[in-house]
Amino acid sequence: NLSGYKDVEKKTVVIGGMFPIHNRLASTDSNTTNAPESSECEGFNFRTFRWTQTMLFAIKEINARTDLLPKTDLGYVIYDSCFTISKAVEGTLTFLTGQDEAVPNYRCGNGPPLSALIGAGGSDLSIATARILGLYYFPQMSYESSCSVLESRFQYPTFLRTIPSDEHQSVAMARLVLHFGWTWVGTIAAEDDYGKYGIKRFKELVEEAGVCTSFSETLPKVSSPEAIQRIVQTVLGSTAKIIVVFSSDVDMRPLVEELLLNNVTNRTWIASEAWVTSAAISRHRNILPVLGGTIGFAVKKATIPGLEEHLLQIDPYQDPLTEEFWETAFNCTLSFQKAMQNARESGNITSAQDVRLDPEGLCNGKEMLGKLNNTFTDVSQLRITYNVYKAVYAVAHALHNLEHCVPGKGPFDGGSCADIDKFEPWQLMYYLKNLRFIVPHTREEIYFNNGDVEGFYEILNWQSDSEGGVTYHPIGYYNGTVPIDKRLTIDNTSIIWNNEILEVPHSVCSERCQPGTRMGIRQGEPVCCFDCIPCADGEISNTTDARGCIQCHEDDWSNANHDECVPKTIEFLDFSEPLGITLIAISAFGALLTIVVAIIFFIHLNTPLVKANDPLLSFTLLFGLVITFLCSIVFLGEPQMWSCMTSQVALAVGFALVLSSIMGKSALLMLRARAVKAVKTATKKAKAAAAASEQSPDTAVIAPAIPQKNDVDPIHPRTQRAIMIVCTLIQAVGCTVWLILVPPHPVKNTAAQNIKIILECDPGNIIFICSIFGYDILLAVVAFTFAFVARKLEDHFSEGKSVTFGMLVFFIVWISFVPAYLSTRGKFMVAVQIFAILASSFGLLACIFIPKVYVLLIKPERNKEEMMITRPKSRDT
Ligand code: TCR
């Protein structure tokens, strides 16, 4: 412990200081056979020793000033917390009770009063000491304990600090990660309050924003090579390219060494304030390939004039610490005795004479510190150092205000003031809380808002300097006092990244899902790790990272990329397409052919062939066929109200006309056939009777009359026409009712096919259309039955046969139509329907009329009156 006060007649107030000058406790074997001793410390830390000296420098500066505490001198007592809680607690107790050495004990009242403790280093140490100091309401002013839990004035009533709370730093880090769009980060935290709380808050913030952590590791406090190796393996095994480290440089160092050993490159490290400007890390050889490009947050930097000189002029013999510093810095021994002892122990020197002759390992205190390029004298990054400086000034200003209190106008009971000679700690606490002062040189204004200062960080990027070392290049800042969206300012262009492409690293678990796909979660993995699942047909996603696909509107369909709904193609069988043209041609040809047949018939109206069966029915039949041929054209084209109505109705009525005409015709044929049959049996009987009478000539037998064609036509053409007209009329009436009640109308069929809208005719009512075409079928069946019965009727025009055959063709066509129709989709359904119409019409035309036309035109000799029933007769004659 260092202490020093001036022995002038001025009053003296003592400030306590606590610094982690050593990095750890020396390991002692714990056995309980002898009394335990306070352990030694090891691992001299030049950086923290600079902080210690800065406190002394500030005190010296203040004591030299006449405007600040002119009548009082500041003394100091400094403890080494050794980066360990136990040492910090021990130091605090010593400080308060004065049980150790010549430290004044404020409780006994002897010696100058204690004012405040500056320290105690890391947050975990400060938390421990603040609890003890809080008991006595003793002010503590910390320069580097940034943990957010120390914000609680309830738990730590007298804790103040000149470093911003880590709440700000965690927010700043989270903002940085979000700024660059990283969603897959690894975190490493020291195993202390600083690391744990800092990283916890960071994770909370980023996870809220949808960032995932690939791994979360903890740096051990006690050296553990296995743990460090495990962390390095985790880093290597992870796809996260961004690693956030919340740790002090001391704890981070073993990890850095292992990283160097494993040559872990191509990662970007996000540094917390505690290691971003640490020479202990950045001064490693070959550090740049591993940690180059690191981005970190640093507290405000300052230049403190005179500090460098103070550091360079340090007297090695001043106290044990300066001595140790000197010996560590120059790697030598200051005292002759020690040197000789060391030499003896190593066994190469035997006498004092030898040491004097061989001065190796011995130093004289006159060595040049300036030449050493030591962290201690490096004043380029005075950040925590500046915090120490501010802390000392804060205490000094508070004491100044306390000293200059005007009695009667003081803040305490009845306007009283505290006495600088013997004030109570809570009285000084009052002044510290309400302090507002300007720091010399930097002109920064300091005040404590509930014990904390404003959150302001500089953002640094590790870049290489001309000699291959590290420079901390400022790339922006974080200002916690402005509105949240303006807090982070980063100049992206001035960052040098540590990857091959020198571009913003890409750290995501899964690449973003492009439009056309959606995110599919992976069971048991963080939400940032997902698969991109293509949208199904008819569904799209038009944003990146879509959670789900959107169903397209009924009239729309997804495009090939599934990122846009496009209108479905509208489909109908158009006139202009080849199929349409072909169908039109065929039906026109059919209609023409029918008309030609009709004309031929008309020309030969008076010939026996035409007259054989009611010619009018032939013409209605042909007319019906023209209708069916032509109505197939109406099926083509974009369905309209009128075309839907006409096409179906014309077809139904056309067929009714055709079929009822055929029925009328075949009714005659059938009756003729029956008559012929009757005649035949009668003839047979007559012959038999004749034969019998020949055998017995006595018996006179009257042969029954043999029916003659002309006088026995069993049915009058009027009846035939009546059949035709009635049957057709029934259909016409049915169709009219249909058209009036539920007319067929065009519809858009979106359901049948995904990518198309099929324009088609909706029959309006399925029962109607079924009964109407059912009626046609009925007519067809009846006509066929009649014709079938008459098929063997032997006239030389074979009308029975041809009608039967025509009807068969008709049936075959329509029966095969059903499966063909049902198995086609879209516009081809219409085509199939037209084909069936055309085929059946052609079938009828061809079977019924072509043989007759053949006779009429080519074999006119056969076109003569001939008794139908004459054949058996002529055979007889
Ligand atoms: N607060 C840390 C310790 C720490 C530190 C540093 C240690 C900070 N900055 C610089 C060494 C060097 C910030 C804590 O524990 O609260």
TrEMBL record:
InterPro entries recorded: ANF_lig-bd_rcpt, GPCR_3, GPCR_3_9-Cys_dom, GPCR_3_9-Cys_sf, GPCR_3_C, GPCR_3_Ca_sens_rcpt-rel, Peripla_BP_I
Family annotation (Gene3D superfamilies): 3.40.50.2300, GPCR, family 3, nine cysteines domain
Alphabetical keyword list: Cell membrane, G-protein coupled receptor, Glycoprotein, Membrane, Receptor, Signal, Transducer, Transmembrane, Transmembrane helix
Mitochondrion in keyword set: no
Superkingdom per UniProt: Eukaryota
Record field: transmembrane: 579-604, 616-637, 649-671, 722-741, 766-790, 802-822, 834-858
GO molecular function: G protein-coupled receptor activity; olfactory receptor activity
A single GO cellular-component term on record: plasma membrane
Pfam families registered for this protein in UniProt: 7tm_3 (PF00003), ANF_receptor (PF01094), NCD3G (PF07562)
CDD domains cross-referenced by the UniProt entry: PBP1_CaSR
Subcellular location(s) of the protein: Cell membrane
Limits of the G-protein coupled receptors family 3 profile domain: 579-863
Membrane topology: Multi-pass membrane protein
UniProt keyword Protein biosynthesis present: no
Similarity remark: Belongs to the G-protein coupled receptor 3 family.
Protein name: Vomeronasal type-2 receptor 1
Organism encoding this protein: Triplophysa rosa
Source species taxonomy: Eukaryota, Metazoa, Chordata, Craniata, Vertebrata
